[in-house]
From TrEMBL:
GO terms for molecular function: sodium:proton antiporter activity. Its main location: membrane. It holds the Pfam family Na_H_antiport_1. HAMAP family: NhaA. It is a multi-pass membrane protein. It comes from the Bacteria. This is Na(+)/H(+) antiporter NhaA. The chain crosses the membrane at residues 23-45, 76-94, 106-128, 140-158, 170-190, 196-216, 228-250, 341-364, 376-403, 415-433. Na(+)/H(+) antiporter that extrudes sodium in exchange for external protons. It catalyses: Na(+)(in) + 2 H(+)(out) = Na(+)(out) + 2 H(+)(in). Belongs to the NhaA Na(+)/H(+) (TC 2.A.33) antiporter family. NCBIfam families: NhaA.
Length: 442
């Protein structure tokens, strides 16, 4: 008797969905997609359809609730609303690393911490050495950021022969870099604070703590406190995406269920399913199994896993599409200020990042405060530094905050794209040399 085709189809579907899920959580893929989306944005912005590109992002979108009406451009909804979820993931990554990761031990975190600070200070100084007017100086922080997805994606292209400690070092450095970027946005790119907005933000934070005290475990329950926090920061004059970082740092890092509780719950559920023929009993037991599967992971991990594909393959590519489209014909470099901004950002990313990371790391080791992780030498630190020069997402985000002048903003974005592209090319070139030398020495 032939076996029914449906179970086989289910098996194929399950394997396909599993492969897709694995694909969606590969960091390198996210970097490659960002690269292609940036190219599409540039081609679109410089095609005969350039007017449609710019018109799309300026299209107003509003929300009406009774007499309340709030309208902003599509660009605002992407940069100030959707990017809050990107910063939420960043905040949860920082929270997790501080709890039990690369930042949990100060002595372990000291070397990537010093390297990250070097990677912020050196680019800022190089940029400021080339830009002196008040309008130009505002962009000092643009070349200080590192795009984690792009950097990790470029490193993955080099293959598994690159020591795993280099990847860990790069991730730790990029996470610290994100912390610095968040602090820079909070202190240097937020307007004068409105006390009413700050009070509303505090109410949002208190509501989050109250919900946690009550034991609310569903992420959806925190949408209202999160919206209140976002609104408070927006009214206060701070950048509202910081709400994502705050919520991420407040996300619990421990499981609600102990190991013993999980084992007992699973055993009871399986025993009930095996011993009962009643549909309701089996359904309840299956629901309990699903509940244990959900609660066995700490919220900071579970929510991160859920949001990761949406942020990596939805929000970040959309941000790139909306912000990377520089119309070359509109790029006015005849002004010395615009030329200096573009050149300053490009050189600061391409040269300042690796220089600062390398010098600060070497100084910490030379002073005996730190030592290089196993399998990493100065050549490996240089590789991390070169890939750290890939600014892209965060650099463009800061550029949008730094410049209100469209000419200078366009120049800054051009500098980010050129600096990031050159960092990728030089970083991959050095990476292949590093791989070859490592293979010979081994």
């Amino acid at each position: 008797m032939r076996k029914p085709a449906l179970p086989k189809l289910h098996a194929v579907t399950q394997r396909s969905l599993s492969a897709i899920n694995h694909f969606l959580h590969i960091e390198a893929v996210g970097g490659l997609i960002l690269f292609f989306i940036a190219i599409i944005a540039l081609l679109w912005a410089n095609s005969p359809f350039t007017n449609s590109y710019h018109a799309l992002w300026h299209m107003p979108i509003g929300i009406t609730l009774g007499s309340f009406y709030f309208s902003q451009s599509l660009h605002f909804w992407i940069n100030d609303v959707l990017m809050t979820f990107f910063f939420l993931v960043v905040g949860m990554e920082i929270r997790k690393e501080i709890y039990d990761g690369a930042l949990s031990n100060l002595r372990v975190a000291l070397l990537p911490l010093a390297a990250a600070l070097g990677g912020v200070i050196a680019p800022a100084l190089i940029y400021l050495s080339l830009n002196h007017s008040p309008d130009q100086i505002k962009g000092w922080a643009v070349p200080t950021a590192t795009d984690i997805a792009f950097a990790v994606g470029a490193l993955a292209v080099l293959g598994k022969s690159i020591p795993s400690n280099i990847r860990i070092f790069l991730l730790a450095l990029a996470i610290i870099d994100d912390i610095v970027a968040v602090l820079i946005i909070a202190f240097f790119y937020s307007g004068g604070f409105d006390t009413t907005g700050l009070m509303l933000a505090v109410v949002g934070i208190l509501l989050v703590l109250f919900f946690q005290w009550l034991g609310f475990r569903s992420a959806f329950a925190y949408l209202i406190p999160g919206a209140i926090l976002w609104s408070g920061l927006f009214i206060a004059g701070a950048h509202p995406t910081l709400a994502g970082v705050i919520l991420g740092l407040m996300t619990p890092v421990v499981t609600y269920y102990s190991k013993e509780t999980c084992v007992n719950s699973v055993s009871k559920a399986i025993e009930a399913i095996q011993s009962s023929n009643q549909y309701e009993t089996i359904t309840d037991s299956a629901f309990n199994l699903h509940k244990v599967q959900r609660e066995i992971l700490p919220p900071v991990t579970r929510i991160n896993i859920t949001l990761h594909p949406w942020v990596t393959f939805g929000i970040m590519p959309l941000f790139a599409l909306a912000n990377a489209g520089i119309t070359v014909g509109d790029l006015d470099l005849s002004l010395a200020s615009a030329h200096h901004v573009m050149f300053g950002v490009m050189v600061a990313l391409m040269l300042g990042k690796p220089l600062g990371i390398l010098l600060f790391s070497y100084a910490m080791v030379k002073l005996g405060i730190c030592q290089f992780p196993k399998g990493i030498n100065l050549a490996g630190i240089l590789l991390v530094g070169l890939l750290g020069g890939i600014g892209f997402t965060m650099s463009i985000f800061i550029a949008n905050l730094a410049f209100t002048n469209e000419t200078l903003l366009g120049a800054a974005k051009a500098g980010v794209l050129l600096g990031s592209l050159l960092s990728i090319i030089i970083g991959l070139g050095w990476g292949y040399i590093y791989k070859k030398n490592s293979a010979i020495n081994s």
